[in-house]
Input
Amino acid sequence: MADRAAVTVVGGGVHGCSVAFFLARRGITDVLVLEKEEGLGAGSTTKAAGGIRYQFSTEINIRLSQESIPFLERFEAETGSPFRFHQLGYLLLGTTPADLEEFRRNVRLQQSLGVPVKAVTPDECRQLVPAMNPDGVLGGTFCPKDGYGDPYELVQGFARAARERGVRFETSRTVTGLRVRGGRVAGVETSRGPVESPVVVLCTGAWSGKLGEEIGIDIPIRPFRRDVFVTGSFPAVGHPLPMVIEYATGFYFHSEGDALLFGMADKDEPSTFSTAVRWTWLPRVLERLVHRLPVAADAEVQTAWAGLYEVTPDAHPILGPVPEVEGLFIDAGYSGHGVMHAPAAGKLIAEFIADGEARTLDVSALSIERFRSGADRREQAVF
Ligand SMILES: Cc1cc2nc3c(=O)[nH]c(=O)nc-3n(C[C@H](O)[C@H](O)[C@H](O)COP(=O)(O)OP(=O)(O)OC[C@H]3O[C@@H](n4cnc5c(N)ncnc54)[C@H](O)[C@@H]3O)c2cc1C
Output
């Protein structure tokens, strides 16, 4: 006998858990979440730096933040589980005239949508982070409503609330195929037998392109490795710090308790599924760290990990139905900023399933069909 569920969610990261939560809240509780790893959140979610921000360059990403961040502010009231949202702001540092030009465009767009962001001078950047060396900083942008938190708390909170409403979660169970009958989804094949289901949602993050190949659907999401480094206790830097990002290099840091979490992408590294820490990359990152925060010359790296960005060609997610297979939905490809948009995405997928369309936001720009029509609206603010 095959398992059955009204909705099968593939992937137990923050998106799968959010989708399950919002479905359950809409009264759709016959939901089965399948996760290939031993624990929920074991993909990219628990590797994330936890950043949460309004500061994007496209209207749709800003609107996803506007749906998500107020929810994160009241996460405990919504789900019954705590989420410590350190709303200390994001400070973006511009070091080239091109950065400042982009900041002007972004701030204009963000303010026109009601985001409390402002342009800041190099002196103001220094006031926000007194330990910072402002050399080369020409200006910045700051939004006090941005911040960071622990993504695992979101996974736990969504999953617990969904479970309480009847959602089932199965870990160590890999989806290996899709059952389709007459152009409609009929279920999934898994490492532990099939599941019959008229609705399937792929929340498979960086593995979506690979799963797409296995089920014969072109899903343009590719994995790229990102390393994160954390110092030991390091009070000299003056905590708590906002999230600080050098726009041109993508180098970033924020407080992690009384330690410092930092990283920088190696944009030249080709796509890979490897999550081994690249210690050979650390000297380049340390060079930026010590330049921007000279006091950090005395800090020691105590912890490091690597995870995968799930990158689409235009750095926007794929959110919505797959037109050629009725009943199949994708919620993936957040290109390195997916933790923060999980609340909006879960709500929107639940609307697609319960109402037949997304009502909260027009997300047609995020349809998988955009890659076929050649639409090109790249998100610039990805690091
Ligand atoms: C170093 C780093 C820093 C980041 N920093 C931030 C940040 O500051 N802010 C932010 O918002 N985002 C950040 N991100 C991005 C963020 O982690 C992702 O966008 C987000 O976690 C995506 O969530 P998800 O649920 O879609 O994917 P995941 O968490 O990867 O979940 C997908 C799940 O699907 C499972 N799966 C895949 N294939 C199958 C299958 N066939 N069967 C069953 N299960 C399957 C995987 O095991 C995985 O658990 C960062 C990422 C990294 C790597």
